[in-house]
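Entry:
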Amino acid sequence: MRKSEHKGILTKNKRPEKNLLLDLKKRNSGRGSDGRITVRHKGGGVKKLYRIIDFGQEKMGKKGKVIALEYDPYRTSFITLVEYEDNTKRYRIAPHDIKIGDEIICDEQVSLKTGNRTKIRHIPVGTMVYEVELEPSLGGKIVRSAGSGAKVLAQEGRFTNIQMPSGEVRKVLSECYASIGMVSFPEWRYVVIGKAGRSRLRGIRPSVRGTAMNPVDHPHGGGEGRQPIGLKYPKTPWGKHALGVKTRKKKWTDKYILSRRKKNK
């Protein structure tokens, strides 16, 4: 099922809110400042407008009513259009099972209801959360993709332990905010692109096998007809190990990781 075919859930004949749209600068097709391709397989794609999302606590203490559930071309999940008591509207990431007419609120103390947002220290152990902050008042940075959710494992002083969707366990400052529930559209993982044209409309250009290239273009290239790569291990186009190499760079949040994610067997 395509995301755009979720007609039973999305609001019908709803145009996006004009004052919450942004026309981003045209994509550079994966090229850097010198015009050279730095990220391969990018280019083309249909024109799309960015929806300005409230990831933080802009409307603290004000009740909001969900008036629409919409598609967002820039993210995998759906988004909700929320109208607040002061008659202003904001887009927010839609949690799973949210319905039009539901009321949500962001405050210090809230009821344990899907879509509500509060400090993570007030959320009971075992609750699923999403849109979690890494630093207080900077807005939700993690757990924002379709169908994802983190579980609150323990409250320990200044920190709260949460289990990420990957299985990684990390500490988050208890003063950080998080939304209750899971992100909408968990079926996204089962979406099949189906044809090359759909991939091109999404801005993804074709990828070519290294063995189909010439030796000058790829370490796997060359030879008459079909040939093995002729190497002890697969290489990237730039000659580095392609498999089994850790690529994660050291980040300032590494000190908060209690246990790494488990590798898939």
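The mean pLDDT is 91.
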